[in-house]
Specification:
The chain is of the alpha/beta class and about 160 residues long. Helix content is about 30%, strand content about 35%.
């Protein structure tokens, strides 16, 4: 069987998952995509950045659904990153531990610079050669800007400014 990988992105507003299947050394195709509007950071910014129980339960429930899909597609590897909501939350370790213990998902919280770089990398791979571009990614808890010159990511910045924040 071809190698299958699930990638999960836990943001301030939504949780997304894509399941890929490798089709050759440098190619893959998408088998399934899922998205859930969890609004993980809802109420957090009014409470010192602390994640609240109801949004954490919504995120947990969404991840349970993702795990069921991962199992049904016989995925061999799962990568999970979290951005602004968990990056900012003083109580993130309790949530991360619960997910690891109950669902077996290792969540890697990435900083704003890494978030900006990964977004730019995705865009750069879609652009034709000899293209200069600026990307803007407005998320729930942060907004990232990137400058791309001929597929080279020359600079990026992440700001604590988002639709939920």
């Amino acid at each position: 069987m071809a190698k299958r990988v699930a990638v999960i992105d836990i943001g301030s507003n939504s949780a997304r998952m894509v399941i890929y299947e490798k089709s050759s050394r440098f190619a893959f195709h998408i088998l399934h995509e899922a998205k859930s509007r969890v609004r993980l950071s809802e109420g957090a910014y009014k409470n010192g950045g602390n994640l609240q129980e109801i949004p954490m339960q919504r995120a947990y429930d969404a991840l349970c659904g993702f795990v069921s899909l991962i199992e049904s597609f016989k995925v061999r590897k799962t990568l999970c990153v979290a951005t602004s909501a968990l990056r900012d939350a003083p109580n993130k370790s309790a949530f991360i531990s619960k997910i690891k213990q109950n669902l077996g998902i290792n969540i890697k919280v990435i900083d704003g610079s890494k978030e900006a770089y990964l977004g730019a990398l995705a865009c750069a791979n879609l652009l034709p050669n000899q293209t200069n571009a600026i990307t803007v990614d407005i998320g729930g808890g942060s907004t990232e800007f990137d400058v791309i010159n001929d597929k080279d990511i020359s600079s990026n910045i992440s700001l604590d400014l988002g639709t939920v924040r």
